[in-house]
Amino acid sequence: MSAPADPHPADAPIPEAPVLTAHRAGLVGCRSCGRAWPETETTCRRCGGALVPPDRRCLNAVWAWLLAGLIFYIPANLFPMLKTSTFGGLRGNSESTILGGVVELMHYGNHGIAAIIFIASVMVPVGKFIAVAWLAVVAGRPATVGAAHKRLALYEVVEFIGRWSMIDVFVVAILSALVQLGFVASIHPGPAAVSFALSVAFTMLSAQSFDPRLIWRGLPLRSRKDQE
Amino acid sequence: MQTEGAYDLSTGAGLIACPRCDALHVERELEPGETARCLRCNTVLASPRAGAFTRIIALSFASLVLMVGAVFFPFLEISRMGFGNQTSLFGVALAFSHGALMPLTVAVLGSIVGLPVLRALLLVYTLLPLSRNRPPFAHAVPAFRLSETLRPWSMAEIFVIGTAIALVKVGGLANISFGPAFWAFCGLILVNAASNAFTSAATIWDAIEDAGVATDGREIAPEPRA
């Protein structure tokens, strides 16, 4: 945690010192606890995690989960998320899809909530599909150090924000549990809730399968300070 | 036994590879309060905090108590024109219990109740002996690994924000009042956030390996008694 391991001694972070990666040193780092092991090991003896060298093999899983997420995102938008009936259906039964719900909220002047739902249910999932696909396409291609930092930042944003898309599913659950006022109003969940939840879960798995160490493969060996 | 700062490039002993960018670092003892960051990508590698293990245990127990309250007390109440309805957390999860939506009930219950409880129990199980400088219990390694794997799937905080949105959505339609469970759940979020702030996975792995001695230089402590 102090300095590149080789060829300089510990506690001497020389700004121009090249960064030695575990891969180049013939070692493999454990992704869950950080411990370095010889490349021949397959299981980390400290935390029991699988030791995987940073190569493009992980991209198969990324693409597979991403495709699954994309497939389930289609019915999530076509089918209704919420079925509302007011005054025993006299005021009409409405079935709203994700986009329909956003439009409805805009109509009632709830611009803030409409924006949150739109961002969480449309912009974030679509942005995630694009971001993960882009990261997977450019993974392992030589980049500049600056570009690698940007890609890692993008990956961290995708990883952090992915689970927040689940918010729409929770909103549907709360609304349909709460708004059961018999004749006056009742809300029921629609089939889109399941496919949306699955789509979010699959994209989360897709982002988790991506190995961020691939971003740094093929870089010239330089330290963080070099690019400034 | 190994001295601080010594490393072996052929076995990887004394070395840490950044999980984000694979840069190799020499392991070094950290003082509580220090934070080790990757030289290349700035990822936090370890951040031991004074008394962290004891605090995480205390916070885990607090979250278990709050979860009991959150599950069994009424969550939200709604009323309009004499029609009223009250729901608990189970009620929310059971909203999906009709037909094809059934699996979603399990997923919702799991992500807002099951996983936070399981994670709290796993953390207590892992850290209880470590906090008293004792060797870890059997299977502490898979227990802590499971807890780390489940971390992104435990969605209590997302659920609370979802509640806020749902309330604004129906706010114009009916009167809403919060039950005790809602406040218990809000408390749970704060407790979980505090617990996460104290958790440094690398430090806990070190402590497990060193049989309870909370150090960052792995083999500096006496050999594990295993």
Structure description:
Chain A: One of its GO terms (cellular component) is plasma membrane. Chain A: It comes from Paracoccus thiocyanatus. Chain A: Its main location: membrane. The complex is a heterodimer of chains A (228) and B (226). In chain A, helix 2 packs antiparallel against helix 3 and helix 3 runs parallel beside helix 6. Chain A starts with 26 loop residues before the first strand and ends in a 19-residue tail after the last helix. Chain A contains six helices and five strands, in the order ββαββααααβα. The N terminus and C terminus of chain A are likely disordered. In chain A, the strands form two sheets. Chain A has a three-stranded antiparallel sheet with strand order 4-3-5. Chain A is elongated. In chain A, strand 3 and strand 4 form a beta hairpin. Chain A has two domains: 53 residues, no CATH class; 161 residues, Butyryl-CoA Dehydrogenase, subunit A, domain 3, CATH 1.20.140. In chain A, 46% of the residues are buried. Chain A is mostly helical and 228 residues long. Chain B is mainly alpha-helical. Chain B folds into two domains: 47 residues, no CATH class; 168 residues. Helices cover 50% and strands 11% of the residues of chain B. Chain B has seven helices and seven strands. A three-stranded antiparallel sheet of chain B has the order 6-5-7. Chain B has a two-stranded antiparallel ribbon with strand order 1-2. In chain B, a hairpin with a 6-residue loop joins strand 1 and strand 2. Chain B is elongated and about 75 Å long. Chains A and B meet through strand 1, strand 2, helix 3, helix 4 and helix 5 of A and strand 1, strand 2, strand 3, strand 5 and strand 6 of B.
